[in-house]
Write a structure and sequence with these properties.
Elements (H helix, E strand, L loop, with lengths): L9 H30 L4 H19 L4 H4 L5 H22 L4 H8 L2 H12 L6 H18 L8 H23 L5 H19 L9 H27 L2 H4 L6 H13 L5 H26 L4
Helix pairs in contact: 1-4, 1-10, 1-12, 2-4, 2-9, 2-10, 4-8, 4-9, 5-8, 5-12, 6-7, 6-8, 7-13
Length: about 300
């Protein structure tokens, strides 16, 4: 998460926490809607097409000055590369949701911060001690627990979820490199634009003509995703992203609740055990990043 936010008061910080919790709920609602869309027979590519196309319209309408305002960037190539990573991450996420329960997919993708740490160490030269590497290894062990609760066969859905986490981690690392040069809305526009264009090229090969209820179902991921990103930006305006990051793990609570209410899914005990390991590892890595930033080592 990136944002200019430095809290002006304790109430501002609490407001930021409340907004980040609502943003997490919106993102899980987006995933639930995408899962409902794939279970209704629509391809993940068609669901992603609707998500990015409507998101593009929302960004253009909401930004003062229109699209020209957010097209201005001195690093267009890197913006497009970052957008491609987000598009790939989204499609892999929707493909995983078509094959996995909502909570299990979310738990596996919680490994993304551990990937971010590894990529930042390799690509950005950030210093990472052996304790944080050990935490990352423990997190991967937690993924194994979640991915194989019924044996030693890794399903296609698990592979899609891991690919989603990998692409999203790379997206976050590139975002760190771009953060000083472009506002958040610029990145949102480029992601929506590239996603709409690439999915529009691919979607004729996966097209299924929706009825009215189908169009409404396809619109939900974009609406929840757009609202989630808006709340995320507002949260980062009220509180530092480093403070807000751990609260994103509350998405597990939302995914457990919605998965049970909407799809009658309740995770296996191994999923809960793996989730605890992954979240503990992620929190340890996050604490190490805060200490490193405070000491000026990053």
């Amino acid at each position: 998460m990136t944002g200019p936010g430095t809290p002006r008061s304790g109430s501002g910080t609490l407001g930021g926490i409340g907004l980040i919790l609502l943003a997490g709920l919106c993102f899980v609602c987006m995933q639930a809607a995408a899962k409902a869309g794939t279970e209704a027979g629509y391809s993940p590519v068609q669901v992603a097409w609707a998500r990015f196309s409507l998101h593009l319209v929302l960004v253009v309408v909401m930004v003062p000055g229109g699209a020209g305002q957010v097209l201005r960037t001195g690093r267009t190539g890197l913006q497009l590369f970052r957008s491609a990573l987000l598009v790939l991450s989204t499609i892999c996420s929707f493909a995983a949701l078509a094959r996995l329960p909502l909570a299990q997919m979310n738990v596996i993708t919680f490994v993304a911060p551990l990937f971010v740490m590894a990529f930042a160490a390799i690509g950005l030269g950030e210093q990472v001690g052996w304790r944080r590497w050990a935490a990352a290894a423990a997190g991967l062990a937690g993924v194994v627990l979640v991915a194989r609760p019924d044996g030693f066969v890794v399903s296609t859905g698990v592979l899609y979820a891991l690919a989603m986490a990998l692409f999203y981690a790379l997206y976050q690392v590139v975002t760190r490199a771009l953060a000083p040069t472009a506002p958040t809305l610029v990145g949102l526009f480029y992601a929506a634009f590239l996603g709409a264009v690439t999915c529009s090229i691919a979607v004729p090969f996966f097209w299924r003509t929706p009825d009215l209820s189908g169009w409404m179902l396809l619109a939900l991921p974009a609406l929840f995703g757009g609202l989630g990103h808006y709340l995320l930006i507002r949260a980062c305006e009220r509180a530092p992203a480093s403070l807000l990051a751990p609260f994103m793990y509350c998405e597990l609570l939302w995914s457990l609740s919605l998965g049970f209410m909407l799809f009658d899914h309740w995770p296996a005990p191994a999923t809960f055990a793996g989730a605890l390991i992954i979240i503990a590892s992620g929190l340890y890595v996050w604490q190490g990043e805060r200490q490193a930033a405070g000491s000026g080592r990053r």
